[in-house]
Amino acid sequence: xxxxxxxxxxxxxxxxxxxxxxxxxxxxxxxxxxxxxxxxxxxxxxxxxxxxxxxxxxxxxxxxxxxxxxxxxxxxxxxxxxxxxxxxxxxxxxxxxxxxxxxxxxxxxxxxxxxxxxxxxxxxxxxxxxxxxxxxxxxxxxxxxxxxxxxxxxxxxx
Length: 158
Hints:
Layout: H1 2-33, E1 46-48, H2 50-58, E2 63-65, H3 69-74, E3 76-77, E4 81-82, H4 88-98, E5 103-107, H5 115-126, E6 130-134, H6 137-143, E7 148-149
Parallel strand pairs: 1-6, 2-4, 2-5, 5-6
Antiparallel strand pairs: 3-7
């Protein structure tokens, strides 16, 4: 009697595991494939000042504007890529083109804007090893009377 019950329970468990693997296997595999490159607990962006950004621009390094795309189109730091917080496609595009550079500078509107932190965090998780945050943002850049670019097309500098 016990042996028969054990066989039936084993069969039910085996069927449940097989059914689960068949129904959820692709999503489990997809989740595994999209595992973050870097552990979010290790994210520690380095705050930088305007003078650092000036040198960064002169060297032609990677810059990401985390403000809304419409703000970006109205004016941005030269050669910056538009990656508004929450815009997965633009984030993917920057990662695809530039993650091998390992370093990125991110800014948004001003000290009161946290989007640069959010976008920097996403870039770190995607594989960038060093994230610099220009906390003064675009407002500080303009206050320093530095050149800006406006974009007339919808490509956003990409």
